[in-house]
């Protein structure tokens, strides 16, 4: 009887926890939103690149680079982690038309490293 | 070897040490038949000494390998980053709390003193360490309730394996006698019943949040596959446990049944240490995304 009561209690607590929390398949930080986004064609060059992650990230080891088609970096200064620890942004120089690769690498607060890259395009004028 | 493999490999012995020390201490205090806590603690002391030393050796390895993984650098290149990681990261802060406790866990079994008090302190320190493990797990990304569920999962696993191993140690090493086994075995069986129930429920919760509602991820994602291996290994232990409970327990007072029971319990203990290895691997594998 005790086992049954404990099982019911445990099941209720877990059910409550599942209902209260929205299901988010996170753990390890992955981009939730990118500005500019992957594959986006921009008519005007952006002043900064920002990535919002689905889980908090550490300031230590956070990397964000924007690299032009010629392989040269287009970023100004170091990347910054937002107060919420969910965003990583870096200012970029005036970008000429062309393809740009964004390379990111972060450490989630669970201490696991993730990295990735994507491309956006600044369209030529006229 | 991959970084995930390296991290799991150094996390495994530490997890085994913390889990077994908490579980066996709880067994000695709460489950071993009355007035025999002292004898039980004496029988478990060599195990605790070995596990404590193992924890002290592997705890700095966890910090170093973790730092190397965080910085995506080699182990040697990670050394200069250690102060910064300790000062500025959540992982470093948790480790800073864990290491003194790990040292205490290693020293305690060597100290003189009353078995019951020493066992209680050892259990509390190991429990605090398990709590810190849950604070640096995947669960921390999902908030307090996920951390609590993760901790409950760890505690239930520790009580299960501790009860099984405690029974084996009491009988085989402590030579506490046939009557002791007759009294202790039903208690272990009872604890196994409700800890496994808790493990299933808390495991379902964690799996749901890590894999979503997509069963394909059990096959397609590395996290899903590792989870399947872990569940299969745990199922094997459960089958042996069921055999013990329904075939051997009714005749546990007979010498042959007791011999089979203790042999099976030894096998279960070894398998559960393997399950803890898969748990360490799971804790370092990115959930399906």
List keywords for this structure.
heterodimer, A: 126 residues, alpha+beta, four-stranded antiparallel beta sheet, four-stranded mixed beta sheet, 1 helix, 15% helix, elongated, B: 289 residues, mainly alpha, 0% strand, globular
What does this structure look like?
The complex is a heterodimer of chains A (126) and B (289). With 126 residues, chain A is of the alpha+beta class. In chain A, 15% of the residues lie in helices and 41% in strands. Chain A has one helix and eight strands. Chain A has one helix spanning 2-20, and strands spanning 31-35, 41-42, 48-53, 63-68, 75-81, 87-92, 98-107, 113-122. In chain A, the strands form two sheets. A four-stranded antiparallel beta sheet of chain A has the order 1-3-6-5, with no helix packed on it. A four-stranded mixed beta sheet of chain A has the order 2-8-7-4, with no helix packed on it. In chain A, a hairpin with a 5-residue loop joins strand 5 and strand 6 (87-92). The longest helix of chain A is centred in the N-terminal third of the chain and has 19 residues, at 2-20. Chain A is elongated and about 40 Å long. Chain A starts with a helix and ends with a strand. Chain B has 289 residues and is mainly α. Chain B is built from eleven helices and no strands. Chain B has helices spanning 3-31, 37-71, 75-78, 82-88, 90-107, 115-135, 144-173, 178-211, 217-220, 222-248, 255-283. In chain B, helix 4 (82-88) packs across helix 5 (90-107). Chain B is globular. The two termini of chain B are 23 Å apart. At the A-B interface, helix 1 and strand 8 of A face helix 2, helix 4, helix 7 and helix 8 of B.
């Amino acid at each position: 009887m005790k086992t049954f009561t404990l099982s019911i209690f445990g099941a209720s607590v877990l059910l409550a926890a599942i209902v209260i929390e929205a299901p988010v398949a996170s753990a390890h930080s992955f981009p939730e939103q990118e500005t500019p986004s992957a594959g986006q064609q921009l008519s005007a060059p952006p002043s900064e690149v920002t990535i919002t992650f689905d889980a908090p990230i550490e300031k230590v080891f956070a990397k964000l680079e924007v690299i032009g088609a010629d392989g040269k970096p287009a970023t100004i200064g170091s990347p910054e982690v937002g107060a919420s620890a969910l965003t990583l942004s870096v200012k970029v120089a005036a970008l000429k038309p062309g393809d740009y690769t964004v390379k990111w690498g972060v450490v989630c607060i669970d201490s696991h490293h993730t990295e990735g890259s994507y491309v956006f395009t600044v369209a030529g004028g006229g | 070897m991959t970084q995930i493999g390296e991290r799991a490999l150094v996390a495994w012995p530490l997890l085994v040490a913390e889990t077994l020390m908490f579980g066996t201490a709880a067994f000695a205090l709460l489950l071993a038949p009355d007035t025999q806590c002292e004898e039980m603690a004496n029988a478990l002391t060599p195990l605790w000494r070995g596990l404590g030393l193992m924890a002290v050796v592997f705890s700095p390895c966890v910090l170093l390998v973790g730092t190397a993984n965080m910085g995506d650098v080699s182990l040697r290149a990670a050394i200069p980053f250690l102060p910064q990681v300790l000062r500025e990261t959540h992982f470093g802060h948790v480790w800073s709390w864990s290491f003194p406790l790990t040292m205490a866990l290693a020293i305690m079994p060597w100290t003189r003193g009353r078995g019951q008090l020493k066992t209680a302190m050892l259990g509390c320190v190991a429990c605090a360490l398990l709590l810190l493990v849950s604070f640096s797990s995947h669960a921390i990304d999902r908030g307090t309730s996920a951390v609590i569920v993760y901790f409950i999962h760890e505690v239930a696993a520790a009580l299960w394996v501790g009860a099984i191993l405690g029974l084996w140690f009491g009988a085989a090493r402590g030579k506490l006698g046939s009557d002791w086994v007759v009294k202790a075995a039903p208690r272990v069986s009872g604890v196994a019943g409700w800890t496994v129930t808790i493990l299933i429920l808390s495991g379902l919760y964690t799996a749901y949040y890590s894999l979503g509602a997509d069963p394909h991820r059990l096959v397609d994602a590395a996290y899903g596959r590792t989870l399947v291996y872990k569940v299969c290994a745990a199922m094997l232990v459960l089958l042996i446990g069921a055999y013990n409970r329904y075939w051997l327990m009714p005749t546990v007072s007979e010498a042959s049944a007791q011999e089979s029971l203790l042999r099976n319990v030894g096998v279960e203990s070894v398998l559960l240490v393997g399950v803890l290895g898969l748990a360490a691997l799971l804790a370092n594998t990115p959930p399906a995304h």
